[in-house]
Amino acid sequence: MTDPRSRDTLEKNWQPIARPGFNELIGPIEFCDGPDGIRFRFLAEAKHRNSRGVVHGGMLMSFADTALGTTIRKGRASRVQATVQLELHFVRPAPMDGFIEMHCRIVRETRNLAFADGDILADGKIVATARGVWKVLASESG
Fold first, then answer.
1. Of 35, 60, 62, 98, which has the most beta carbons under 10 Å away?
2. Maximum Cα–Cα distance across the chain
3. pTM exceeding 0.90
């Protein structure tokens, strides 16, 4: 099988999210700033497979938490935040033969809370939708 990364010749700006710990175990997860906002992806590997031969729902949940949280934090390096609520709606199985991608949006921000949602896609089809709330614990202003 051809490595799906070779199909991605037009996109040269993908960068890994470099976070120690859990994200190292499930990744690499990559991100790219594009004209339509920040996008995230991971290459479905054997470690992501469930007993039915598709991407495990727990991996999709972890991916959504990382992608949405990173979107909210983007450009705010000193911000400390924590996931308060995260929901995922599974639409169809995510196949094991390529990239799983997520497009994220910030819905609303207050001084203490941030709301975001996004779609998880495989082969251009939505496999899950996610939405969440993050508590801002500390930011640039204190």
1. 60
2. 51
3. no
Whether a cis peptide bond, with omega within 30° of 0, leads into 28 is yes
Of how many residues is the chain composed?
A: 142
Closest CA to 120 of 47, 41, 10: 41
Amino acid at 51: S
Spell out the per-residue pLDDT of the chain, length 142, in tens.
344 444 443 456 898 887 778 877 788 999 998 777 789 999 999 999 999 999 999 999 999 999 999 999 886 777 789 999 999 999 999 999 899 999 999 999 998 999 999 999 999 999 999 999 999 998 655 4
Q: Tokens 């949280």 sit at which residue?
A: 69
In contact, 49 and 34? CB cutoff 8 Å: no
Q: Give the whole-angstrom CA distance, residue 108 versus residue 106.
A: 6
